[in-house]
Each structure stands twice: as structure tokens, then as C-alpha cells.
């Protein structure tokens, strides 16, 4: 397929690699040429053969010219998205699908009234999409079902793992799940139960070891002899009791954040953050590769 | 050290392996001899050399005789724990530490008034402890600091990853974190946003891939250029908005559970559950081994 990448930050660069790796022709565009060049260099670094399928577009009209699917990863500010979608609306062919990488804005906030609105939706990845397969698709009320279906199939052929929300909802699914976990993480630290490092250990050395290959439902389904129904019958009341204790939404206070920040910076000094991010990316790539190997041997 | 295993279900069997694997002498006891024999067979299956360090005890007095540390994994019913701790109290040496594997009962509920109460605490693993390192230590109000310190050091020498709660709290840390995630998972399904399988994908193909080697704080700390303080300044208001939406504790209704159960059983029929559990254990063992290898190469 002919793919257009519009917006080349970290997310757009990673998307460029995802599409080129899967054999698509990728046109790359950013308002600033160096950003587009950096995206191309990122693809080339992964494999020059992938970069051979990419071209740098000269302007928005050029990148959209002939494009069958557009992955938009412009800056996460609503006025920018709104202006960009109005500008694209005048240039799009009547069959092109436009998916936004936005994590925060439902498509209804920047596609209302556009003549191509039925072919616009959100396709929100977890950064970086070339390593993390999950993509959540969120249609606006006016997104055509066919738009969702085509995008979902495209994501599958890319090797991504698409989920489809039935409607727009604040935070979509991924950030809502993360919000729930973070809320309790901050609560435990604020209440002096344990340190941030200990919360992290509870996940990284505990819960996360199952969650990286089974979700929360699959996990509890196998934790009772007869499955999730039995699990809920046994433990539902306990979890309801905890849920009531956890139903006090709290702002993350400056003092609390500052205390956490100082502990994190003691562990990873400011100057070491870039190195630590490289460590994270390398670890993530290795874990994803290991999971793929294990899935090949044991099945999914 | 001389270790006593009291109670030999799945958890006690796995603990037997943890201690024997680390070179300790392990006495194994269960009210029913076949359960103790099964635990020994489980250790032997891992490595006969480990089993050579284990012995089957004939009764409670025998298993506690000379024990420096007791890991209790009796059935998860409070009257059973209370009776067992009273019985042990008459038999313990004045230096033995007794740690309970309980996931649900703080030690204050079954050690109050015991003469050895200062050396009792909870050491709650995530099942199975021979694969999952996390152990949460929860002292009762009367647990001696030295008891906590010795247990934490022991856990470290075993290769486990101990965290220490400052006080007793419902659900401890692990189940509180799981509760938060499950609450939102059930909410998303109940509200018709997506299916249980899609929630599972959001975690297993998304969030969980980072959480298996970085906890929630380490994750957000690296998701802003200058660390967690900047992340919270940028996204705190968004998360507070989500937290307010998530502050409606819900019972898991029979209809909801039944709908989830039927979807899970369509994916894994009842007869396939035992096989699926073997798959989980094999996958978990392989992921943990892969993570160990990656940590060896890239650091923790």
C-alpha cells in the first residue's frame, strides 16, 4: 500500500519503520525537513532495504498524493491537529483513510464537519510501535465501519495487535488501565506503605511477569480450578472491598511528586536519563524478541 | 539454614524448591502425608540434588525441631491459621522466625497474644515463588524489626525480590495493584467499550511489555525528557480526570461475570484449563529465564 507519514517525532519515525518493514511504500513528511530526514535515517539504521521503500515528501500535498492510508503523528496540541486536518481535508482523495496517533484527543475533536470525516479515526500506539504491537482504534461517531475494518486488517498485516473501542472515551483503554494502576501506586507511596522502588518491584518482579503474556482476565481465569467465574465468586467480595478503599481520586500533590522525583533522581541522576532510555529500548527489544521466540515454541 | 515448610499445597511445594535450590536444609510437613510427599516429588523433579536436602517430617513438633525459619502455607482460612499458630507457639524455639504465605490475612489476625508473636510476620509470594521473585513482607504491629530484617535478607539470598510494607493494609501491595487494574478492566467490559480479550491484549501486547522489567514509576520517569516530575506536571491533570471517572467502585455482577466466563470458556474450553495452566507455567518459566539473560547482558 501507499502510506503517508505526517509528523515525524519519535512516534512518526517508529511508524515509518513499521510500514516500511512490512513492505509498504512510505512517503514521509514533517513541517521541519530535519525531522523527516531523521525519521528516514531511523528506518535506514534498522535496515537500508526498508529505507529504500521510503521517500521524503516536499509538502503536505506531496505526501498525501496517492496515499491510501495516512498515519498522522503531529504534535499533541488540539489547535495543531485541527488546523492540520482542515488542511489535509482539501487534499485527500475520496478513499484515503487518515489515522491519528493521538493519545489524548478523540477524533471527534478535530474531524467534525470535514468532508472526509468518515474516513478518519484514532489509531493510538504504545510508544514505540515498532517494538510494542498494541494499537487501539477509536472511531469518532461519524467514522464509517469500513474505515475501522480496513485499518484493523492493515494493523494485523503489519504484525501489530489492534483492539477496537466501540466508542470514544477519555484516556481510551490503555491510559485508563495505566491510570488505575498509577492511581494506586501513588496512593501507596503517599500513605507511606512502601517506596516507589518497592511498588516498581511489585510489578516488575511480580505482577508484570504474567501480564507481559497474559492480560488481567486470562490471569485470573487460570487462578481458579474452574475459571474466572469461580475466581470471582471466591474473591469478588475481597476485590469490592479494596475497590471501595481505592475510590478516593487524588491529585498528585507537588510534595508527593517532588518526593518521588528526588528518589528517582537518586537512582538515575539527570545526566543518566538518556542512557537509561537507551537501556529501556534495548531491554524492551530483547523482551519482545524473547516473547516472540517463546510464542513460536509454546503457542500464544 | 534449617527451614521448615508447614503446609504443602502448590505454594508450599514451590517454597520447598526455593529453599532447597538455595542450599538450605528443608523439613517438609503437611497434615496429610501425600501432600508432603507431593511437595518432595516436586522438588525432586526440578533436581534430585535439591531433594537430597529435604526430609519429610512426621508431625508439627518434628518439622519445627531445630528450624530457624518456618514458611507456613496452610489453607487460606482464618480459623485454621489461628489454631495452627497456637499449636506452633507451644513448640517454637525462642529464636525461630515464622512467616506466613497468606495473601489475605494480616499476621495480627492470627498471632495476637502468642509468646512468639514478635517473630511472626507475613511473607506473601506471588504464585509460584520458584518462578516469580516478588515477596511482600508485612509485619504485625508487634513484629520485631529484627524479624523483618532477617527475613528480608534471607529472601534476598534466595534470589527473591522482597518489598517491605510499613504496616498492615487490606490486600497488601500486590493485590491492591491488581485490584486497581481489574476494577478498570471489568468497568471497560461492563460499559461495552471493548471485550475481555481486547483488555487482555492491551496489557499483554502493550503495557505489560514494559511492566515486566520496569514498574509504573520507572515507566513514567523515562516518558518525559526530565523525568517523573515533568511527566506529572504535563499529565497529572489528565490522570486526575480519569481517576475521578474511575472512582465508582463496582461489584462484579453475576451477569457481567457470566458474560466474561462464557467468552473465556469459548476461548479455552473447561477441559482445556489444565493444559492451559501448563502452558502458562512453561511460558512464565521461559520469560523469567529470558529476563534473567537480558538482565545479565544489559543490567537491571
TrEMBL record, chains A, B:
Residues 2-165 form the 3-hydroxyacyl-CoA dehydrogenase NAD binding domain. Signal peptide: none annotated. It is found in: Cytoplasm. The keyword Cell inner membrane does not apply. Its main location: cytoplasm. InterPro entries: 3-OHacyl-CoA_DH, 3-OHacyl-CoA_DH_CS, 3-OHacyl-CoA_DH_NAD-bd, 3HC_DH_C, 6-PGluconate_DH-like_C_sf, 6PGD_dom2, NAD(P)-bd_dom_sf. It comes from the Bacteria. GO terms for molecular function: (3S)-3-hydroxyacyl-CoA dehydrogenase (NAD+) activity. Pfam families: 3HCDH, 3HCDH_N. Its EC number is 1.1.1.45. Keywords: Cytoplasm, NAD, Oxidoreductase, Phosphoprotein. The keyword NAD applies. Residues 171-236 form the 3-hydroxyacyl-CoA dehydrogenase C-terminal domain. Homodimer. Belongs to the 3-hydroxyacyl-CoA dehydrogenase family. This is L-gulonate 3-dehydrogenase. It comes from Ancylobacter crimeensis.
Amino acid at each position: 500500500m501507499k502510506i503517508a507519514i505526517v509528523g515525524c517525532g519519535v512516534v512518526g519515525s517508529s511508524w515509518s519503520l513499521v510500514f516500511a518493514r512490512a513492505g509498504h511504500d512510505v512517503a514521509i513528511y514533517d513541517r521541519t525537513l530535519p525531522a523527516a530526514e531523521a525519521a528516514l535515517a531511523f528506518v535506514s539504521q534498522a535496515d537500508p532495504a526498508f529505507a529504500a521503500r521510503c521517500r521524503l515528501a516536499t509538502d503536505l500535498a506531496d505526501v498525501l498524493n496517492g496515499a491510501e492510508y495516512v498515519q498522522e503523528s503531529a504534535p499533541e496540541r488540539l489547535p495543531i491537529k485541527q488546523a492540520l486536518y482542515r488542511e489535509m481535508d482539501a487534499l485527500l482523495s475520496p478513499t484515503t483513510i487518515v489515522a491519528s496517533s493521538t493519545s489524548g484527543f478523540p477524533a471527534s475533536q478535530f474531524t467534525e464537519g470535514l468532508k472526509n470525516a468518515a474516513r478518519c479515526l484514532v489509531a493510538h500506539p504504545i510508544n514505540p510501535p515498532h517494538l510494542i504491537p498494541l494499537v487501539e482504534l477509536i472511531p469518532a461517531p461519524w467514522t464509517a465501519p469500513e474505515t475501522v475494518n480496513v485499518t484493523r486488517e492493515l494493523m494485523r498485516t503489519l504484525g501489530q495487535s489492534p483492539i477496537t473501542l466501540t466508542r470514544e472515551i477519555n484516556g481510551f483503554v490503555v491510559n485508563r488501565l495505566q491510570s488505575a494502576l498509577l492511581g494506586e501506586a501513588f496512593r501507596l507511596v503517599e500513605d507511606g506503605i512502601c517506596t516507589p522502588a518497592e511498588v516498581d518491584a511489585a510489578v516488575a518482579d511480580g505482577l508484570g511477569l504474567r501480564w507481559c503474556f497474559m492480560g488481567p482476565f486470562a490471569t485470573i481465569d487460570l487462578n481458579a480450578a474452574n475459571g474466572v467465574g469461580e475466581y470471582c465468586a471466591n474473591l469478588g467480595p475481597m476485590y469490592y472491598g479494596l475497590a471501595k478503599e481505592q475510590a478516593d481520586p487524588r491529585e498528585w500533590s507537588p510534595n508527593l511528586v517532588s518526593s518521588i522525583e528526588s528518589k528517582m533522581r537518586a537512582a538515575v541522576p539527570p545526566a543518566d536519563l538518556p542512557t537509561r532510555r537507551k537501556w529501556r529500548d534495548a531491554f524492551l527489544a530483547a523482551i519482545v524478541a524473547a516473547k516472540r521466540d517463546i510464542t513460536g515454541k509454546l503457542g500464544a
